[in-house]
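In response to the reviewer comment on reproducibility (Comment 2.3), we provide here a single inverse folding case reported in full, input and output, so that an independent group could reproduce the run without further information from us. The structure tokens appear first.
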């Protein structure tokens, strides 16, 4: 189970955002408390917000259909304090691509995408910093995903003894 580490940049940015009088708690964002095994988001649900973990740990799982009404729900990673997730729904309401479940007591900020976009547009310097930090996070995730795919491909080739033909 991998653990994503994304650092302090987004934490400082989110602190500035939620402290702003333009971003009212209850209207633009909410602080939510989750108990162990509570589902934060469920794969397939339509999303229009992103999340920032203030306290605790969450687990990301996805559904893999094996055919014949069989499936598995593998863990794709654990998320810790300072991690942002759900960002794919920032600019368009989309189905969630994974289920995220609390594995400890957790405090999570849920920030409504529409209000965040408006705020970032009207605060261009902070908006630039936000998108730059988010870009760095996404590039890190893409690099880790590429490495995972390469490792799985190598494993598959070896298991099926196809590597001897390469």
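Designed residues, in position order:
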């Amino acid at each position: 189970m991998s653990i994503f580490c994304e650092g302090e940049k987004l934490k400082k940015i989110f602190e500035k955002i939620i402290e702003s009088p333009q971003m009212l708690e209850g209207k633009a964002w909410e602080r939510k408390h989750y108990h162990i095994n509570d589902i934060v988001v469920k794969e397939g649900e339509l999303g229009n917000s992103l999340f920032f973990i203030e306290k605790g740990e969450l687990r990301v799982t996805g559904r893999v259909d094996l055919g014949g009404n069989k499936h598995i729900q593998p863990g794709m990673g654990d998320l810790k304090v300072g991690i942002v997730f759900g960002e794919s729904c920032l600019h368009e309401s989309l189905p969630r691509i994974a289920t995220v479940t609390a594995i400890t007591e957790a405090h999570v900020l849920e920030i409504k995408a529409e209000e965040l976009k408006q705020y970032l547009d009207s605060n261009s310097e902070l908006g630039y910093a936000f998108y730059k930090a988010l870009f760095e996070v996404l590039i890190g995730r893409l690099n880790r995903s590429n490495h995972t795919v390469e490792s799985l491909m190598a494993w598959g080739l070896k298991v099926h003894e196809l590597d001897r033909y390469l």
